[in-house]
Design a protein that fits this description.
This is Mg-protoporphyrin IX chelatase. Helix content is about 35%, strand content about 15%. β15 (about 495-505), α16 (about 510-530) and β16 form a beta-alpha-beta unit. α8 packs across α9 (about 225-230), α11 (about 255-270) crosses α12 (about 275-290) and α18 (about 575-590) runs parallel beside α19 (about 610-625).
C-alpha cells in the first residue's frame, strides 16, 4: 500500500488545508471545491486528509458501513441488531472521470430480479464512501448526469437505485471534495452552489517557499515511509485537534449578532437562495470549534464568507471569482453591534484580520481564505484601459498593409436562442443537438452490447414470452434467459463544437461592426457554456490565419481572447477556411463523435495572392464534401454589394445572413437556419 504524503507536510496552501479540516470537523458544511492551476498540491492535500479522520465503527460484514450504534433500517444487508462493531480507518474513495452510472450508484442483477424476485445488489462507489471521503479529481470534466447523481446523494445522505420497479436505498453520507483546473472548463452555477466551500489555489511566487516544496517532495519520493514517520507527531496533533473540535462542536453557540452578520453579508453580495446563509453558519460554527471556542466571533463570520461565497456570487461565466474584501469588512462592521456576539458587542471589533487565534498550525482560522476581486468588467477582463484609435475608431482602407486597429470592445452579450446541428449524433452528453445517449426519452430497444444498463421491460417480456413452455415454466414468474434481455434505446442531447471563423481584416475593422460580431460570439459562448459545448475561434487577416482559441469549454479564456482580437490588413479568406478545416480534422481525431457547426463571419472579400476568391471557394467545398454544417454572416456594407458571402455560403453548403440581421436578439436564431439548408443539400 502506498504511503500518502503527510497532510501537515504540505507547504503553504493555508486556505485549502483550512477548508478541508473544517469539513473534517463538521461534514455538514457540505464539502470543498478546489480550483487552481495544475501542480498546486490539490490532489496531494485531499488524499492526505483521510489519515487525519477518526476511526470509523462499522457493523461487521456490512458492505454499506452501517454505524453499529444506529444501523440503517433500510440497509440492503440488514436489518442489523444494535451492538458493538469493529473499527476501521476512514476511507477515501476516488471517482474516476470516466466512471459509469452503475459504478457510481451500484447495480441490480436485473435477470435475478425478474426471474427470482431477488434484490441482488452490487454496491457502488457511493456505498464505499459512506462515512468517509468521496474525491472527484477534475470534477468539471465529469458527465452531467453523474454530477447530478453525486450531488443529489450528497444532499439527501442516501443513494437510490431504481430499475423497472425494483428499488434499493442505502445511506450515503460522505465528505465530497472536488478539484478542477478552470482552464479546462467551468461547472454550471447550480452545481457550484452545491459545494459548501471553495478555495482558489496557486503556486507560491516566493523562492524560499518553492525551495521547501521541492525539498520535501524529493525527500518523500526517496523514502515515503521514513518521511511520513518524521511527520507523525504533527499528524497526530492535528488528528487529536479534529477529534476535540468534533466533540466541542455541539456546544458552540451561534448568537443572533453573528446570524445577522451572516444574513447581511449574503444579502450584500446578492447570492441566490438561502444555501449560502446556512453554509456560512455551519462554517463559522466549525471555525469556532476548531479554535477551541464555544462562541462565534466576527472573525469566524469573515473567514466563513471568504470560503463559502466566492463561487456563489458569480452572476455569469464571465464574472471573475472572489470577493471584494473591503465591501465584506464594511458589511461586517456595519452589523457588528446588532445583537451582541459579533465582535465585542459595541461595533469596535471589525474582525478583519482573524487574529483571534494565535495557533500557527495548519489551517488556523486566521488563514485568510478567498481571493480579492479584481477590478473587472462584466466579462472578468480589464477592458477599461484599452487605448482607442486616434482617429476615433475609423478603419484603415482595405489593403492598407500590415497596419491594424486597437481591439474593439464587444457589445453586451445577450441570451441566445438554441442552435443545433441537424440529424442525430452520438457525441458527448450535452444540451444542444439530438443524439443517441444513455439518458433521455426511450425511443425503442436493442440487444445489449456489453453489460445491461437500461432495461426495456416490455421488450424483454415480449422476447421471453414465446419460449415459456419450452423452458418448462410452471410457476407465476417468467423464465428469463440472458438472450431475452433488451436494452432501452434512448434519445437525448449532445454537446457540439461551435467553430467561429472571423474575418479580422481591414475591411471588417469598423468598430460598430466588430463590436456587434464580438457581442454575438460572446453570447454564443455563454450559451455554449450552459449547453456543455466546445467553442473555437479562427481569425484571418494580413498574410494568413491563426487559431485564436483552440476548441475549449472555458468561456473565461474565450472571452479574454475575443476581447483582445485586433483587426487590419488584407483578407486571406482561403487561409482562414483551410485553417478551420485543419482544426476540425484534428478535433475529429480527438473526439470523432462530436459534431461541428462552423460560423463564418466575413464580407466575402478575398485579397492577396493569385485568384483569391477562387481559392476561397475551393477551400469552402471541403466543408461541403465532409457534410459539416455551416452558416455565413455577411458583413458586406455600402450601396454596391458584390454578394460574395452568399456565393461562399453556397460553396460551403450552408446559408448566408446579412450584417443587418446580426442583431443582439437574432444571431443565434440565424444560425439555426443551417438545419434546413443542410437537409436540402443532403
Amino acid at each position: 500500500m502506498t504511503t500518502p504524503f503527510p497532510f501537515t507536510a504540505v507547504v503553504g496552501q493555508d486556505d485549502l488545508r483550512l477548508a478541508l479540516l473544517l469539513n473534517a470537523v463538521s461534514p455538514a458544511v457540505g464539502g470543498v471545491l478546489v480550483r487552481g492551476e495544475k501542480g498546486t498540491a490539490k490532489s496531494t492535500a485531499v488524499r492526505a486528509l483521510s489519515a487525519l479522520l477518526p476511526e470509523v465503527a462499522v457493523v461487521p460484514g456490512c458492505r454499506f458501513s452501517c454505524d453499529p450504534a444506529a444501523p440503517d433500517p433500510s440497509c440492503p444487508d440488514g436489518p442489523h441488531e444494535a451492538g458493538p462493531g469493529t473499527g476501521r480507518p476512514a476511507r477515501m474513495v476516488e471517482l474516476p472521470v470516466g466512471a459509469s452510472e452503475d459504478r457510481l450508484v451500484g447495480a441490480l442483477d436485473i435477470e435475478r430480479a425478474l426471474a427470482e424476485g431477488v434484490k441482488a445488489f452490487e454496491p457502488g462507489l457511493l456505498a464505499d464512501a459512506h462515512r468517509g471521503i468521496l474525491y472527484v479529481d477534475e470534477v468539471n470534466l465529469l458527465h452531467d448526469h453523474l454530477v447530478d447523481l453525486l450531488l443529489d446523494a450528497a444532499a439527501m445522505g442516501a443513494s437510490y437505485v431504481e430499475r423497472e420497479g425494483v428499488s434499493v436505498r442505502h445511506a450515503a453520507r460522505f465528505l465530497l471534495v472536488g478539484t478542477m483546473n478552470p482552464e479546462e472548463g467551468e461547472l454550471r452555477p447550480q452545481l457550484l452552489d452545491r459545494f459548501g466551500l471553495t478555495v482558489e489555489v496557486a503556486a507560491s511566487r516566493e523562492p524560499e517557499q518553492r525551495v521547501e516544496v521541492v525539498r520535501r517532495r524529493l525527500a518523500y519520493d526517496d523514502d515515503p515511509a521514513g518521511f511520513a514517520t518524521r511527520w507523525a507527531g504533527e499528524e497526530a496533533a492535528v488528528r487529536q485537534r479534529v477529534v476535540a473540535a468534533r466533540e466541542l462542536l455541539p456546544q458552540v453557540q451561534l448568537g443572533d449578532g453573528a446570524l445577522r452578520q451572516i444574513a447581511a453579508t449574503c444579502a450584500a453580495f446578492e447570492v441566490d437562495g438561502m444555501r449560502a446563509d446556512i453554509v456560512m453558519a455551519r462554517t463559522a460554527t466549525a471555525l469556532a470549534a476548531w479554535a477551541g471556542r464555544t462562541d462565534v466571533l466576527a472573525e469566524d463570520v469573515r473567514q466563513a464568507a471568504l470560503l463559502a461565497l466566492p463561487h456563489r456570487r458569480r452572476r455569469n461565466p464571465f464574472d471573475a471569482p472572489g470577493l471584494d474584501e473591503d465591501k465584506l469588512d464594511e458589511t461586517l462592521e456595519q452589523f457588528a453591534g446588532d445583537g451582541g456576539d459579533g465582535g465585542d458587542g459595541n461595533g469596535e471589533d471589525d474582525g478583519d484580520d482573524g487574529d483571534g487565534d494565535d495557533d500557527p498550525g495548519p489551517g488556523g482560522p486566521g488563514g485568510g481564505g478567498g481571493q480579492p476581486e479584481p477590478d473587472a468588467g462584466p466579462r472578468g477582463g480589464d477592458t477599461a484601459a484599452r487605448p482607442e484609435a486616434a482617429d476615433g475608431g475609423e478603419p484603415q482602407p482595405s489593403g492598407a498593409g500590415p497596419g491594424e486597429q486597437s481591439p474593439a470592445r464587444a457589445a453586451e452579450p445577450f441570451r441566445a436562442r438554441v442552435l443545433s446541428v441537424p440529424g442525430i449524433g452520438e457525441g458527448a452528453a450535452g444540451r444542444r443537438s439530438r443524439a443517441r445517449t444513455e439518458h433521455g426519452r426511450t425511443t425503442g430497444s436493442r440487444r445489449p452490447r456489453g453489460a445491461l444498463t437500461k432495461l426495456h421491460l416490455a421488450a424483454t417480456v415480449q422476447a421471453a414470452a414465446p419460449h415459456q413452455r419450452a423452458r418448462g415454466r410452471s410457476g407465476p414468474g417468467l423464465v428469463i434467459r440472458r438472450d431475452d434481455l433488451r436494452q432501452a434505446a434512448r434519445e437525448g442531447r449532445e454537446g457540439n463544437l461551435v467553430l467561429f471563423v472571423v474575418d479580422a481584416s481591414g475591411s471588417m475593422a469598423a468598430r460598430q461592426r466588430m463590436s456587434a460580431v464580438k457581442g454575438a460570439v460572446l453570447s454564443l459562448l455563454l450559451d455554449a457554456y450552459q449547453r456543455r459545448d466546445k467553442v473555437g475561434l479562427v481569425t484571418f487577416r494580413g498574410s494568413g490565419a491563426e487559431v485564436a482559441l483552440p476548441p475549449t469549454s472555458s468561456v473565461d479564456a474565450a472571452a479574454v481572447r475575443l476581447e483582445s482580437l485586433p483587426t487590419g490588413g488584407r483578407t486571406p479568406l482561403a487561409a482562414g477556411l483551410l485553417k478551420a478545416h485543419e482544426v476540425l480534422r484534428v478535433e475529429r481525431l480527438r473526439d470523432a463523435a462530436r459534431r461541428a457547426l462552423v460560423v463564418v463571419v466575413t464580407d466575402g472579400r478575398a485579397t492577396g495572392g493569385t485568384e483569391p476568391v477562387a481559392l476561397a471557394e475551393r477551400a469552402a467545398r471541403l466543408f461541403a464534401a465532409d457534410g459539416i454544417a455551416s452558416v455565413v454572416v455577411d458583413c458586406e456594407s455600402g450601396p454596391v454589394r458584390l454578394g460574395l458571402a452568399g456565393r461562399l455560403a453556397g460553396e460551403l453548403g450552408g446559408t448566408a445572413v446579412t450584417l443587418e440581421e446580426l442583431r443582439a436578439d437574432s444571431i443565434a436564431g440565424l444560425v439555426r437556419d443551417v438545419q434546413g439548408t443542410t437537409r436540402r443539400a443532403a
